[in-house]
Amino acid sequence: MLASVEIRPIITKAAQDAGFDLAGIASAEDTAELEYFPRWIAAGHAGEMKYMEARDEQGRLKRASLAHVVPWARSVVVCAINYNTAQAYSTETPAEPRGWISRYAWGAQDYHDAVMRRLRKVEAAIKDAWRSADLRTSCYVDTGPIVERVVARYAGIGWIGKNTCIINQKLGSWLFLGVILTSLDLTSEFAALPAPDRCGACTRCIDACPTDALIAPYQLDANKCISYLTIEKRGEIAEELRAGMGRHVFGCDICQDVCPWNRKAPVNRAEEFQPRDGLVNPTLEWLADLSAEEFRRAFRGSPLRRARRSGLRRNAIIAMGNSGDRQFLPLLQKLSVDEDEVVREAAAWAIEAIG
Ligand code: B12
Ligand code: SF4
Ligand code: SF4
After folding, report:
1. Whose CA is nearest to atom 2 of ligand 2?
2. Residue 258 CA: which ligand 3 atom is closest?
3. pLDDT digits (tens, 9 = 90+) for 127-167
4. 3-state class of 157 per DSSP?
5. Which domains does the chain show, CATH number per domain?
6. Among 317, 306, 324, 326, which residue's Cα sits nearest to residue 344?
7. How far is the CA of 165 from the centre of ligand 1 (A)?
8. Nearest 10 degrees: CA dihedral of 23, 20, 206, 65?
């Protein structure tokens, strides 16, 4: 068995070899930022994302503390990969009557798979180096009982910006995070310093958010966030929120597009992050009228599947309504008698909005 002090360079090298841009180690102990999590849930800011409210047998929020669900965890290896591609930002692209899919989602492969595949390599390197039957590890991308951005901050990956995203001074915020919980106590020798907050007096993200979802610095109300509305929200979207969605059909990048730390963000040329054909500035007619077969074919292995066909069509129809463009009226008339109730309702609204 190695001394814990010797394992850090092994983790760093394994993360680099796996294709991660950054890696760090944080303690699994609770930190001050985690206190905001139960408040966020209690305020209803998670909307209908019930998985965020999962509780243990004692009724404690699972994500509020690693001690609640994985008491064996001593330290957390946090890895980050830049997913930026060479395409222009949504805020720099002319507002033609087309849709916008967020940067993280247009890639050839679902990021959960792309990040998990790499994390498993780092996990294998840790196991190989430590060689103890007592060692426990668990890899997560999104789905673990963990607020990833908080541990990322303490692992030195970046600071939590006022838009709530992790920002690295050199790479910006186009980062996917992946975490490996370990039973090893790796932090005592090299506790990473939490990255200092470099937002300063800037409020660009808050000012630019079209739906006022950033209700205060570092606080997001998901109910108002276009990313939540277009990806997670099922069924009808409240009418008063539709205008703010603009042309967004899946996710939203505005609060990152305007961030000065992303002005010179480097690009990752890896094949899996490059946009699939037709997903940069997609045509709204295509998405609004997607057949079940076309949805399966076009979005196999893509994060867009999460919105489901009904949600994606609903979003494209709302974007048509927001465009005010009469060219969409014939298609909207057809969709107003669609078999999907959500599509029918959105089409009737869009006809009126254009009318
Ligand atoms: C639920 C979720 C969402 C929800 C809610 C987002 C949110 N801000 O909470 C929705 C659907 C809206 C969403 C959107 C997006 N998401 Co998301 N999401 C998650 C998920 C699964 C959980 C996040 C969570 O726990 N939220 C709860 C809130 C309370 O936590 P938080 O916002 O991180 O807040 C912390 C701080 O802001 C701080 N804090 C809170 N209040 C205050 C107040 C003060 C005064 C201070 C100082 C601090 C502070 O403490 C909080 C934690 O307790 C994570 C994966 C994970 N397991 O962590 C991915 C994750 C956060 N998402 C990610 C991404 C990429 C996105 C999008 C960019 C996708 C897109 N283009 O549409 C947007 C970004 C929108 C935004 N500005 O956040 C990445 C973020 C990477 C990064 N660089 O930060 C993650 C980490 C996924 C991953 N594995 O890479 N997401
Ligand atoms: S993702 Fe879009 S809607 Fe959500 S907080 Fe950022 S700018 Fe606002
Ligand atoms: S836009 Fe400004 S305030 Fe918002 S995250 Fe970036 S630096 Fe911070």
Report:
1. 252
2. 1
3. 999 888 899 999 999 989 999 999 999 999 999 999 999 99
4. coil
5. 4-85+106-182 (3.40.109), 204-265+274-354 (no CATH)
6. 317
7. 6
8. -50
